[in-house]
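Listing S7. Sequence submitted for prediction.
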Amino acid sequence: MWEYSDKVTDHFRNPRNVGAVDHPDGDGLAGSLACGDALRLTFKLDADKRICEARFQTFGCASAIASSSALTEMLIGKTVEEAELITNADIIAYLGELPKQKVHCSVMGREALEAAIYNYRTGKKLDRKIDGEVICHCFGATDKEIEKIAREQQLTTAQDVTDACKAGGGCGQCIPEIEAIIDRVVGQDSDGEPEMPKLTQLQKIRLIEETIDRQVRPILRRDGGDLELHDVDGDRVSVRFVGACVSCPVSSVTLKDVVETQLREAVSEKIVVEAV
């Protein structure tokens, strides 16, 4: 039987903010009923663009319920930008502790938050397509997912990975492959520097917004123009020109030579910018 802290027990027995927000600004889903855990997180913003209501619906164990309940409490009063900085480690710290075998419950909370913020910013559901080769067939975990979790949480053993995301916790046949991924993560590249982790889609969107604000808008506004971020689909970025840029005869040049160039330098060389 798991050893639960008093705070975990309290949030399990008396969960806060259960249910779904009516007409939410953000709506995110994480986990899978097939794997035994699933979480839906919804939130609403007030007039000051702060989260005034956050609710959850979960199917899972005591740790999943407690983690979800704690997350909603942590979100209330924060801006979206503040909320997206919350990590699964923050959820665990808020609860005091979680059994190491239940760390994946806090990871599910973070993933639901990521999906809800993505929904708020794009109006779309975050489609978690299979990315990479499925390593753990029991829980559907791919090599890229395992590598991402190992990097973010600085995991060093296969058991750490199992505790964090369940991969390897079924039949166990994937353990050697998980260990090989860990060896690659903790190793260094040929230049002796650790390999940098890839951006998540949510991190990419935020970096695109920051780059536009810092490096693109000041250039456009000097001539009475501006632009709005319309959509981000993978490496394809859609923007809408406003102000003087709408009727500017060289707006197509600005699109490529200014907007696309700045985003490629700051975010990814694969970025392609289109006007809508």
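Caption to Listing S7: primary sequence and predicted structure tokens for the chain studied. The chain has three domains: 6-122, 134-186, 201-275. Residues 201-221 form the longest helix (21 residues).
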